[in-house]
Amino acid sequence: MRKTGRPERDVQLPNTLQGFMDMPGGDWLRLSRQYKNVTVKEMARRLGVSRSAISQFEKPTNRPNAATRRRYEDALGLKPHELDNIRL
Predict the structure, then answer these.
(1) Domain residues for 59?
(2) Most confident of 19-28, 40-49, 78-87
(3) Among 14-23, 30-39, 56-65, which is the least confidently predicted range?
(4) Whole-angstrom Cα distance, residue 55 to residue 32?
(5) Does the pLDDT of residue 21 top 80, yes or no?
C-alpha cells in the first residue's frame, strides 16, 4: 500500500473473478470492491463521494461509464482498463 492509503496499481483480478464479466456493470463494481475487502464507507472516502453514491454506482442496473470505471480501478489498485470488459 502506498503512503496515500491507496494500493499499488499492479494487482490484477484473478481469472476466477474474470469469469463473472457477464454480470451487470454495477454488480461487477461491487464484486471488485468486495474482492479487495474494501467497505462501502472506505470506497466512498477513496472516491470522495457519499456512501449513497457508491450504492448507486453498484446497483445491478447501473451502466458505469469509463470515468467511473477508471475511478474504481484507481481506488482499488487495479491495472488500468481492467474493468473495461464488464457488460454494460
Answers:
(1) 15-76
(2) 40-49
(3) 14-23
(4) 14
(5) no
In a domain, 3, yes or no: no
Q: What is the CATH number of the domain that holds 65?
A: 1.10.260.40
Nearest to 47 by CA among 25, 26, 74, 29: 74
Whether 87 is in a domain gets the answer no
Cell, residue 33: 470492491
Average pLDDT, the chain: 79
- Residue 78 φ/ψ, nearest 5 degrees: -85, 160
Q: How many domains does the chain have?
A: 1
Element (H, E) at 21: none
Q: Is residue 64 part of a domain?
A: yes
Backbone angles phi, psi at 68, to 5 degrees: -65, -40
Mention every residue, 6+ apart, whose C-beta is less than 8 A from residue 29: 57, 58, 62, 64, 68, 69, 72, 83, 86
